[in-house]
């Protein structure tokens, strides 16, 4: 019994290490894709594609390990939630990688086909907050830190607000100058991807709350209700 339990804990530790690696790669992809968008460094784009392949492979490895644990160890209660949540978190990071690839593709389109003299919108604050959300959500999951959940939700509100301002600015730019419509459209896709990355980080901390309490709730919706905001 002890050796079986020790093996289970060891496997979970290995999964945590893989999730940490996924999180680090995903964060780097976000930084690089935004840099490609803002600065036109297209050399970063190929690295983003390669990193996405690594994230996809890690997700497959984590899922396989977790499914084996479910089949062979038959965990119950909190252990079962822990394994199931690891699969979900890996899936969230895989989707984050996909969003970064989308940003990179838009950056390439903008700088090779639209040729704007400068980025139509500065997404630095929005992306920096999203990066922090990735750090905090992964730390919350690995260290079972419930205190970080509120911070992630608050930062999600910041990203949502930045997205709304950026969306309105881009629509106005395209309306004023028809030559910038394509660049504005690609830029809108970029900020949409960053906003969705923030949503994925929020999904991760929802899993932390589920893991620790056994109850699953949509934390972003609840947090907005505290602020007197209607969920979208």
Question: Whole-number radius of gyration?
Answer: 19 Å
Number of DSSP strand runs: 0
Low-pLDDT segments, ≥5 res? none
H/E series: HHHHHHH
- Percent helix among the residues? over 70%
Protein architecture, described:
The mean pLDDT is 91. This protein has helices at residues 2-39, 43-72, 77-114, 124-143, 147-176, 181-213, 219-226. The chain has 232 residues and is an all-alpha fold. It has one domain (2-226): Methane Monooxygenase Hydroxylase, Chain G, domain 1 (Up-down Bundle), CATH 1.20.58.220.
What is the strand and helix layout of this fold?
Blueprint: H1 2-39, H2 43-72, H3 77-114, H4 124-143, H5 147-176, H6 181-213, H7 219-226
Helix pairs in contact: 1-2, 1-3, 1-4, 2-3, 3-6, 4-5, 4-6, 5-6, 5-7
Task: Please describe the structure with a list of short key phrases separated by commas or semicolons.
single chain, 232 residues, mainly alpha, Methane Monooxygenase Hydroxylase, Chain G, domain 1, 7 helices, 0% strand, elongated
Give a brief outline of the structure:
The chain has a single domain (2-226), classed as Methane Monooxygenase Hydroxylase, Chain G, domain 1. 85% of the residues lie in helices and 0% in strands. The protein has 7 helices and no strands.
């Amino acid at each position: 019994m002890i050796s079986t339990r020790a093996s289970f804990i060891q496997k979970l530790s290995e999964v945590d290490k893989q999730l940490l690696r996924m999180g680090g790669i995903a964060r780097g992809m976000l930084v690089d894709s935004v840099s490609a968008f803002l600065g036109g460094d297209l050399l970063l784009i190929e690295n983003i594609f390669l990193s996405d392949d690594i994230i996809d492979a890690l997700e497959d490895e984590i899922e396989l390990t977790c499914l084996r644990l479910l089949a062979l160890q038959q965990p119950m209660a909190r252990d079962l939630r822990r394994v199931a949540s690891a699969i979900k978190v890996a899936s969230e990071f895989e989707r984050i990688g996909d969003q970064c690839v989308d940003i990179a593709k838009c950056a390439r389109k903008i700088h090779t086909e639209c040729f704007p003299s400068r980025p139509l919108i500065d997404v630095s604050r929005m992306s920096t907050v999203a990066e922090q959300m990735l750090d905090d959500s992964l730390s919350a999951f690995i260290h079972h830190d419930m205190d970080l959940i509120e911070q992630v939700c608050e930062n999600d509100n910041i990203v949502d607000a930045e997205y709304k301002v950026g969306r309105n600015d881009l629509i106005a730019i395209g309306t004023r100058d028809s030559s910038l419509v394509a660049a504005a459209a690609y830029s809108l896709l970029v900020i949409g991807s960053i906003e969705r990355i923030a949503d994925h980080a929020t999904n991760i901390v929802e899993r932390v709350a589920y893991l620790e309490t056994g109850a699953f709730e949509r934390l972003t919706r609840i947090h907005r209700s505290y602020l007197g905001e209607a969920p979208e």
